[in-house]
Design brief:
It is a single chain. This protein has one domain. 83% of the residues lie in helices and 0% in strands. The chain has 9 helices and no strands. Helix 3 runs parallel beside helix 5. The chain is globular, with a radius of gyration of 18 Å.
Length: 256
């Protein structure tokens, strides 16, 4: 097992411990509230994330030299987790779910761009397309929730879209250019991606809004797929913080 695999294992171990703690507190504190639907689906989503991590760890230990994992239980668990999280958001009846063309088109096109990049990077068509479906749906629900609850200014929302599209665009340019540009583009992308995560972390803590926190969690998934080596482990640590912030936002929402 390489050093990077060991770092991955450590990051996922910390993540699994945090997920178990959040599952416990959600089950004991939030399921007793009147609005128990989101906490219930949230618990199932967390369990799916947890099982995905455990399966990945077992695969890495038992088949350390097997390379990229084929379509397996972890991809199914990750997709289920996003669907369950989406179902929890749908249970929030205070948000207008009327579909707006611009929001739907952005969510679909952004997700398709992500899926195409994943296929370029992995060569795995089926699992990337399967994961892209709940990925797109969750993104639309988050966009709709932020548009309706208005925790962010219009300038902030536009800025988020510009940065996200810029990252995707640079990744695509990198796929069709020489090695010299790759070094520069990777550096620019890492600065933009982790700058985006830091900004969303700060906003999530300040707002304690369910949809901003969900967006932060979504962004950590988006960024982790674009990272390699130690940067992937850093993205996982951001993902851990996103789960904590989302739990706190959910607690505020259901207990008020």
């Amino acid at each position: 097992m390489s050093l990077y695999d060991k770092l991955d294992m450590l990051a996922f171990l910390i993540q699994d411990i945090v997920l178990v703690i959040i599952i416990y507190f959600t089950a004991t504190k939030l399921l007793r509230s009147r609005n128990r639907y989101f906490p219930a689906f949230y618990i199932f989503a967390l369990i799916s994330f947890l099982l995905s991590g455990l399966y990945w760890a077992a695969y890495t230990i038992l088949k350390a030299d097997a390379g990229r994992m084929p379509l397996a239980a972890d991809e199914i668990a990750d997709s289920a987790a996003l669907f369950l999280l989406s179902t929890g958001l749908v249970a929030d009846k205070k948000v207008d779910r009327t579909a707006h063309a611009g929001e739907v088109i952005f969510a679909i096109m952004f997700s398709i761009a992500n899926v195409v990049l994943w296929i370029f990077w992995s060569g795995e068509w089926l699992q990337d397309i399967i994961f892209g479906i709940p990925y797109s749906y969750l993104l639309w629900l988050i966009i709709r929730g932020i548009a309706d609850t208005k925790p962010l200014t219009t300038k902030s929302v536009i800025g988020l879209r510009i940065v996200s599209v810029a990252i995707i665009t640079i990744f695509f340019i990198t796929e069709f250019t020489g090695r010299s540009f790759v070094i520069i583009s990777d550096s620019v992308c890492y600065v933009m991606m982790f700058g985006l995560l830091i900004w969303l972390l700060i906003k999530s803590i300040k707002c304690m809004n369910l949809y901003v926190s969900a967006l932060y969690l979504f962004a950590t998934i988006f960024v982790s797929f674009g990272c390699a080596s130690i940067f992937y482990d850093i993205a996982v640590l951001f993902n851990i913080s996103a789960h904590i912030v989302l739990y706190l936002s959910l607690k505020k929402e259901v207990l008020k």
